[in-house]
Amino acid sequence: ISLDPIYLQDVKNIIIGSIVNIEDITEKVRLENMRSDFVANVSHELKTPLTSISGFVETLKLNEDIDPQTRNRFLGIIESESNRLKRLIEDILLLSFIENKENSLVDSVNIYEVFIEIYDMTSYIAKSKNIKLTYEFSDKSIKVCSNRDYIKQVFLNLIDNAIKYTPENKEVHVHVSSLDGNICISVKDTGVGIPEEDIERIFERFYRVDKARSRDVGGTGLGLAITKHIVKSLGGNIRVKSELGKGSEFIVIIPQKNFL
Ligand code: ADP
């Protein structure tokens, strides 16, 4: 509640009343807290790789006669932490871009064509873990009104996660269909699964079930937050079904009224 009284006085300057503006600022406070949490998280996430980079650079500078094997190991760490920093900055910028362009529906996008564009890249990553990446489209002419890159990003994030959190020699299946006026994209894996208590939270920025695992597989903790924002900007929703140790299925529904 915000109290900022205006006093009413009579001709003799005697206060005869006051006007108080009462406003519910719960939502404002909630948004402000979210904003400051995000800034704190971003600072922490950026500082971690930076501290590591400057630490190893300093060590290399102070120890000129360090053996080549150790030098190469340190340089390798500096390289991977720099790449991590780059991915983080790209994801933070992408999230802020999407947040500011909620309604940038610009093109009639054929979902199958977009999927095929990213299939080569994702199946290459899947192959490196001997994961079988399969797909099925009930109709290859399904279209949605969207920014093309948004649909690409949704596929990339969900398939990339499915591969990241699935052990070697298992399977990931993508299924796209249109049902009751909606487009349905399902990405199903046979991976580690998500504990029930974490399911609601995985779409929050920087929330990871297992921070160390996410870091090891190159995650930024922003992929699902980005995906959810995109899907919402298209008027759709995203949900997940998961069983620990058995696998997860991410289901995206986008209304077809978005057709051009
Ligand atoms: P990250 O970059 O850490 O993968 P995301 O926002 O993409 O960040 O995902 C948030 C968290 O949700 C991940 O750290 C992981 O714990 C969990 N997660 C996402 N996708 C899957 C999946 N297919 N299987 C199991 N856990 C998943």
UniProtKB/TrEMBL annotation:
GO-annotated biological processes:
cellular response to phosphate starvation; regulation of DNA-templated transcription
What is this enzyme's class at the first EC digit? transferase
* E.C. code: 2.7.13.3
Start and end residues of each Histidine kinase domain? 41-258
List where in the cell it is found: Cell membrane
Is the Transmembrane keyword given for this protein? Answer: yes
Q: Which reaction does it catalyse?
A: ATP + protein L-histidine = ADP + protein N-phospho-L-histidine
Q: Does the keyword Aminoacyl-tRNA synthetase apply?
A: no
Q: What keyword terms does UniProt attach to this protein? A: ATP-binding, Cell membrane, Kinase, Membrane, Nucleotide-binding, Phosphoprotein, Transferase, Transmembrane, Transmembrane helix, Two-component regulatory system
Q: What is its main location?
A: membrane
Q: Mind listing the GO molecular function terms for this protein?
A: ATP binding; phosphoprotein phosphatase activity; phosphorelay sensor kinase activity
Q: What GO CC terms are in its UniProt record? A: plasma membrane
User: What is the designated name of this protein?
Assistant: histidine kinase
Gene source species? Romboutsia lituseburensis DSM 797
Q: Which residues of the full protein are shown?
A: 169 to 428 of 428
